[in-house]
Design goal:
It is built from 2 helices and 10 strands. By secondary structure, the protein is of the alpha+beta class. A hairpin with a 2-residue loop joins strand 9 and strand 10 (206-213).
């Protein structure tokens, strides 16, 4: 009789031990399930939450000088197998901090070849692609011109030597063989008025132009 009772007690202890061992495991599984569900809910909220809108790229400040665009930048003009894309243009008063900083950074002078007393410093970003069979060299004459008034065009500014060819930071001299292209920045000086804005391109015996701001 005592042996039977002893065996029953042993079985009871074993069952209790198994229950105590299984219970934390079940609680852990339940906790993991709760955490997983919470993570899924947070992920769903993060996915459905509206993303912040990126600020628009400022490509020009033409309106500051009374020029209302008919065509948005970037704009591309092509002639003779050459394409010129104006991606950005910023006009600064010549004595402004922006203009002074750019002249100092890229070692520009206070005058250009055609503008002795400039009123404005114009900073542009562009890409030019030579899809022709002719070599492009800017020291044989300007291929693209920017116009704001009459027959006047902005005068390119050349950096003081030494300046490397096809400089991507701020170009002065370039040479592109067929199938080559260059993206860079170019500076101009100007002393006229702002009546319209036109880009012209003359290359390989062909001429083309595009109006960004139509004249009155």
């Amino acid at each position: 009789m005592r042996r039977i009772m002893k065996n029953a007690m042993i079985k009871s202890v074993l069952v209790s031990s198994i229950v105590l061992a299984v219970l934390p495991l079940q609680q852990g599984i339940a906790a993991q399930g709760t955490a997983s569900a919470a993570g899924t809910a947070i992920s769903a909220v993060a996915t459905t939450a509206p993303k912040p809108t990126a600020a628009p790229i400022m490509r020009d400040n033409l309106s500051k000088y009374g020029l209302k665009k008919d065509v948005e930048l970037p704009v591309t003009v092509t002639a003779g197998g050459l394409s010129y894309t104006l991606e950005k243009i910023m006009i600064f008063d010549f004595a402004s901090k922006e203009a002074v900083a750019l002249r100092k950074t890229y070692n520009y002078g206070e005058e250009s070849g055609l503008v002795a007393h400039p009123k404005y410093f114009v900073w542009t970003k562009f890409t030019v692609k030579n899809n022709s069979k002719k070599v492009l060299e800017t020291d044989t004459g300007e291929k693209w011109r920017l116009h704001f008034q009459g027959l006047k065009s902005l005068d390119p500014v050349y950096r003081f030597q030494p300046v490397k060819l096809n400089d991507k930071s701020a170009v002065s001299w370039m040479k592109l063989k067929p199938a080559e292209q260059l993206s860079s920045y170019q500076a101009y000086m100007y002393a006229g008025n702002f009546n319209y804005f036109q880009i012209s391109l003359d290359f390989n015996g062909e001429y083309s132009e595009i109006s960004v701001v139509e004249g009155e």
